[in-house]
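TA notes. Do not distribute before section.
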Amino acid sequence: MAVNGFEVFDGDGHVLENDDEIASYFEGDFANLQRFKTFGVWPSLDGWARGFIMSSNDGEARRYTHTDAKVWGEMLDIIGANGTVLYPTAGLAAGLISDPRWAVATIVAYNNWLEDRYTSKDERLFGAGIVPVQDPEAAAKEIERCATERVRFPAMMLPSQTYLGKTYGDEFYWPIFEAAEKHNMPLAIHGGPSRGMGFDHFKEFVKVHTLEHPFPLMIQLTDIVFSGVWDAFPKLKIAFLEGGATWVPFMMDRMDYEYDSVFGAESRKKLKKRPSDYLREGENFWVAMELGEANLKYTIDAIGPDRILYASDYPHEPTEEDLTHELPDFLASSEFSDEIKRKLVHDNMISFYNMN
């Protein structure tokens, strides 16, 4: 399968969870519990009625309101992609589960469900397991399980926000990074929830949605870089998903500015490289682009074309019409060379997810 002569692999698609199904995959003390169906398995992302916001009744092109392996197989045919790595939707709120035992049990159940209902059904479907960051030791075990026992789990997702009051530079999370590096398991930080980001006062969701994906990525990246995570774990690959890619040059300049300032004295002693070099060099930093980003060329100038990922994000915002026009139009454009386009829509995903 090819689009305009280019092989395509989707680096970030999504499932729409089925709570009744997931409930049947809980294990141990959490198996077969009676459940009030008025409450969902997952906490709310942030209080916005996203299901109704995302489902339009104004004649917009058809979109799915549920997914399963068959539906996603059809989606791949629509996109023209050879495969996809599937991330959660409601499960983007996994970091907001307050009880660590419940968080581990829920996330393991989700990963069980994702394997049974998707990745084991179609060899084109790959899963990004969720990491139960509330319990780093249990998280390390789940990373090992996904790396060694589950079918087609080439990456693990870190929620972009947690209730824990600490971000991913904190050594609390380092058992997770140690396990990921040991098992050659890429990690992906995926935006989603907006609560507590400083714009809870907004009354229009479009304002929230503009900011809720890139802001937490910037926060997590800043903490990861200045805390020396990639010095401690030099083989650790982390992707920053669904915030676009054009914020990257800004953050490179901003972190370097602070590193060189009077406030960066301790960082200059501690870090092995300038902040921007962690993004520019090696294979630590990866980022997903949006096809409509007019300034993508500046990100390519800043970090090169080898670690920028294509993401369909289906079935979230894009409609079928979007997918059948935007990708072919991008590949038909003369803005980038064929070599760069091959990397952006196929080769980089194969490299990041260790599929070669």
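Switch to the second chain here.
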Amino acid sequence: MGDLLIDVAREAFTPTTAAFALAAVGLNFHFGLTGLLNMGQAGFMLLGMYGYAITVREGGPIWLAIIVALVVAMVFGVILGWPTLKLRGDYLAIVTIAAAEMVRYLGRSQNFNSLTGASTGIRGNEFKGSFEALSPFPDRMVDVGPFALHGTRSTSWWLVVVGWALVAIFTLIFWRLSKSPWGRVLKGIREDEDAVRSLGKNVYSYKMQALVIGGAVGAVSGVIWALGASVQPDSMGRPTTFWVWTLLLLGGAATIFGPVLGSILFWCSLVLIKGLAAMWIPDTVLSQQQLQPFSLLLVGVTLMLLVIFRPQGVLGDKRELAFND
């Protein structure tokens, strides 16, 4: 039981948890502030992964790779938003999830095999080296209390520090922007965009800005994910977007720390439930391969109950969002 608790505690600060927290912060710009039903956040994440990995693989420095990742995601946001931001509700959701799937299928296409690696993707050893070379930690396993991670490689202390530093930075940016006049306009659009338009504000422009900024944050989350694993298009499929939505709604949309708390709770709960199921349920009932979907099922039921009895999430204010009225 002690080892399980250590695994749960470790999951709270892994790069995966940080990456999904970042993705949820980006989605918070879209939905929490502006009310945009963007169901394609995984597309922004995947473009960020490709932009970074391909640039480094071709010999570019890290700073250029980060710029490319951001620019590609922002251009995608403009292209996506230009014809679609006049849509509302479910129509926007359908278009954005279709756009994300288009990105994934283009990445899988054999026509771009030399660039994206098609369905195989881009292996980590093709682009991680320059990032790992910046690590101040030793190139070996490092113990910090009960936790043991490698100092520099893949899921490492170095990536943990960078990932959570970025979470802190973008959470601070979200807080400052949400309290600014710009953020108040976005909240007005979320509640009643016709009223905001009647005040002379360019609603379309504000929506575009929110979509591009949130997409850029999603691209950064994709880079963190890729540095802890690899670039594989199918890892950024529809379930990824749904998980990001789950994290945001679990922690509380339109809140400052909701995306971070939601990511920690989701991944820790998944590890805890899977561990308890492995301890208490015999192999004759559920095999090891069946534990993961069973754990997701239980987490899903818990989230359904949360949506029913506390739709604003753990940190949310029910009066904050119009859809909770």
